[in-house]
Write a structure and sequence with these properties.
It is a single chain. The chain is α/β, with parallel strands linked by helices. The strands form two sheets. The chain has a six-stranded mixed sheet, with helices on both faces. A four-stranded antiparallel sheet has the order 7-10-9-8. Helix 2 crosses helix 7 and helix 5 crosses helix 9. The longest helix is centred in the last third of the chain and has 27 residues.
Length: 325
């Protein structure tokens, strides 16, 4: 957004305020990394919700030698500048952490949810429309099906994403910070092509912009349309199940294949309380169970057929595993 900085600030504040996720007087804990997006979010939270109900959480993972401590100190300075309380949590990855970015995300949200729940607050993350585009493109490449194209929710449980609901871009959060005199830190790993998101940001997005200048806007609009259509599909699945947590295998086989896959996914996810992305692809295997049988579908879901009726349960832990203790 070009032009008068003051007008840009008013526009951004108006859009985020209109989103309703930072209402006046509603307690909120802001996840503060020190980057432009989270700094912008913390400032907006103070402005819209009120300083007295806003606090910040920074998680120091110790993954970048020297820089991690510098980020924590920077976040403390930002919190002091804005007059809000900040809590800094330290975490160290276990030896078997595997995907470090996924581990860090889980740690961050778990800590945030714990603190927000204890304070009767909501948890706010600084994801923007730019992050949404990157997320959708990554999931499109990494996961089959419709759900990956829906993107991140702007509100789910305690977690809210006010900048995402307002449609703010990464460029706009930088403009906000400059206009408000707020410094931010840059995490070099965001552009590192060793990580999938870095490859999407540095390679894929520029390529798509070269194909069409409105590529990012088109991705976002597609996700919005798919979310609307997903609501319709949920109603169709509800109708097919008629409130039951099981379905006759003969009836499942008579449904259109697309609807049958959605029914399998719904039953698996209701039983496990988690996403079961692999379940729909196993429809033929489930139908082959016949009158009776069991089948583990992955993601912790087990299909059970008894007297020709399909239900789902959690897959029992392997004997001797940590979950079995």
């Amino acid at each position: 957004m070009d032009g008068d900085p003051a007008a840009a600030v008013d526009d951004i504040a108006g859009r985020v305020g209109a989103g309703g996720l930072l209402p006046p007087g509603r307690a909120v804990v802001v996840l503060l990394s020190g980057g432009r997006d989270s700094v912008c979010l913390l400032d907006l939270a103070v402005l819209l919700a009120g300083r007295e109900v806003v606090s910040a959480l920074h998680v120091n993972y110790g993954l970048r030698e020297g820089e991690s401590e510098a980020d924590a100190e920077h976040c403390a300075r930002i919190a002091e500048q804005l007059g809000v309380e900040i809590e800094v949590e330290r975490a160290r990855p276990p030896d078997e952490a595997g995907n470090l970015q996924a581990w860090a995300r889980d740690v961050r949200y778990a800590a945030g949810a714990r603190i927000a729940a204890a304070r009767g607050a909501r948890l706010a993350a600084g994801h923007t429309a730019s992050d949404q585009v990157e997320t959708i493109l990554y999931r499109l490449a990494a996961s089959p099906g419709r759900r990956p194209l829906l993107g991140m929710h702007d509100e789910r449980g305690l977690l809210v994403r006010p900048l995402l609901r307002a449609g703010l871009t990464r460029e706009e959060t930088a403009q906000w910070c400059r206009a408000r005199g707020l410094a931010w830190s840059e995490d070099a790993t965001n552009e590192d092509d060793r990580y999938a998101r870095g490859r999407v940001r540095a390679g894929l997005l520029p390529a798509l912009r070269a194909v069409h200048p409105a590529a990012e806007a088109n991705v976002l609009r597609t996700a919005e349309l798919l979310r609307d259509e997903a609501a319709v599909l949920d109603v169709v699945v509800d109708t097919a199940l008629v409130g039951r947590d099981r379905v006759a295998l003969d009836h499942l086989a008579e449904l259109p294949a697309a609807l049958a896959r959605l029914v399998v996914r719904r039953l698996a996810e209701d039983a496990t309380g988690a996403f079961c992305a692999r379940a729909p692809a196993r429809l033929d295997d489930v139908l082959a169970l016949g009158v009776a049988g069991t089948l583990d579908l992955g993601d912790g879901a087990r299909a059970v057929v008894e007297a020709g009726v399909l239900r789902f349960e959690r897959t029992p832990p392997l004997p001797g595993s940590r979950l079995d203790r």
